[in-house]
Amino acid sequence: MDSGVTDAANMRRQACPPQLLVFDLNSDELILRYRLPDDQVKQDSLFSNIVVDVRDGRCLDAYAYVSDTWRYGLVVYSLQKDRSWRIVHNLFYPDPIACRYSLHGLTWRWTDGIFGLALSPIDPETGDRTLLYHPMSSFREFAVPVSYIRNQTLADRNPDAFQPLGEPRAIKSGHSSGEAMDRRGVLFFNLVTQDSVGCWNSQQPYGYKPELLGIVGHDNESLSFPNDLKVDHDLHQSVWILSNRLHRYLKGGLNFSDYNYHILTAKTDVAVQGTVCDPNYTIIRP
């Protein structure tokens, strides 16, 4: 997803229209360019995250889900139809209580809406998947069955399909950026104001609760503001995290003689060992 925006934090400039780009990684060839229609791009839109939904290797039936963080929308693109539609919902908006950020002695306010996106494995009973999402300025996780957002009419007529997932992850400092889920149903998510990466096992029976969220990594240097997170599709899956010290950049405090950007990775099964997210962990009913 190319947002088309440069220097979003300071002198924001729209260098080109927001667009989806599809590459053949074997040849580095650009095989598809889809520019979002004007009516799906709002003034100051910032398309910040994307997840791709491909099932049973049917690439031509792929869907992409894209979050518009600054204008609180979700864009759905169908490759087969080569068209997209925009969905709006009140649960894409920031929580005013969570708009205050504090990290490493710096305090600032953001009104960032829907940001992190993650797809669940396919439910063997319904054949459907769940899209998990959260606004950046929020302490809550939300969910919607993918079958609703794949049909624009269905999404517009069934706003109650979008629901909070369990309880807030924290009372404060629970801001999360990128997230992703592995094929076992373990969710990984960045905790930007804790210099940490969290986890939650969606297969355990007691829901999304603070006591059932684990920490798989914490470091004040290498995980200083973890901003993006992906889980790959290898047979033995890995989680990948990008940290960029964004808070220091915004305040003009980057030390250019230091390493300010880090890419970290771990095997998903190894990362959760010994945490409450480990599928082998015995959980006593809360």
Automatic annotation (TrEMBL):
It comes from the Eukaryota. InterPro entries: 6-blade_b-propeller_TolB-like, MRJP/yellow-related. Gene3D superfamilies: TolB, C-terminal domain (2.120.10.30). Its main location: secreted. It holds the Pfam family MRJP. PANTHER family: DOPAMINECHROME TAUTOMERASE, PROTEIN YELLOW-RELATED. This is Bee-milk protein. It comes from Cryptotermes secundus.
